[in-house]
From TrEMBL:
Keywords from the named record: NADP, Oxidoreductase
Gene3D superfamilies, sorted: NAD(P)-binding Rossmann-like Domain
PANTHER family membership: CIPA-LIKE, PUTATIVE (AFU_ORTHOLOGUE AFUA_1G12460)-RELATED, NMRA-LIKE FAMILY PROTEIN
Pfam families linked: NAD_binding_10
Family to which the UniProt record says this protein belongs: Belongs to the NmrA-type oxidoreductase family. Isoflavone reductase subfamily.
Name assigned to this protein: NAD(P)-binding domain-containing protein
Organism field: Talaromyces amestolkiae
Limits of the NAD(P)-binding domain: 9-142
Amino acid sequence: MITRVALAGKGRFGSVVLDEVLMAGFKPTVLTRSASTIMGVSDGVPVYEVNYASEESLREALQGHDAVVSAVAGTAIASQKPLINASIAAGVKHFIPADYAMSLKSTEVRALPPYTDVKEIEDYLRARSADIEWTIVACGGFLEYIYDLPFLIELDKRKIDIINEGDIPFSVSEFRTAAKAVAGVLQQPERVFDHCVQVHAMTITQNGTFDIVRKYDPNPDDWTVNEEDAEVKFKQGMDMLQRGELTMAAVTTLMAGEIWGGRCKVAFEETDNEWLGVQLISHERLEKILKSKVTKVLAALLLTRLLAITDC
């Protein structure tokens, strides 16, 4: 039975995980590099300041814990090895790495360059499966992030590249979706099959997204729409990365070609939503999210134009 849970990382997603773990009845501990910067922690939840590069520091903080949930930032994914080693040394039973996107079944996607660090940690855990149980919580793309990236639609430029006709479905989740799945895994770890669970809040498409955006845009025809081929898009992104352009533009170009190309399954046909207590969200909820994004972007564009006029 898992009772005490250590949470590594309390950013936007980690904060939601902490709430769900508390509501599920676990006794959480927050690990952080700087205790003075941690805010919004409920009374009675211990906060330990640790050195994530020091196994000794981590092992001391993890004594007596049953599980570790990693919610470190994407730039810190490769640095989880000391945390894994310390978890094993401290007798932790279960480890959930910071790997909240594509499923282990999505082998084509996970073999791509943007997944290098994620795959390295997966292999590291596989090699230690005899010492600790571990689970990847696959939840597709986070709705809190994906509309800020240009791989789906570029709200700030009022531009969309419709790839392969724009009807490929893609699994997406809110932070709350994945956080509930984390709590569900900790409640029933014996039900996890092959170190991975799949959950999502819904599936989306490029065309479906664009329809909603135009619904809430006062000038719905004032958009640049390009028809793109997935293979061409994918090659453009791969070429950029191979030239050493390790940029978000290169990554999003590559992933746009892969996600919207239809070559691999990026919409979970089977999910673990039911036994993990994860609910789907409604189309109205998606509309609310997109309406908020559109409103903010249009307001920012208007302000920029007004400032430009004023400067003239």
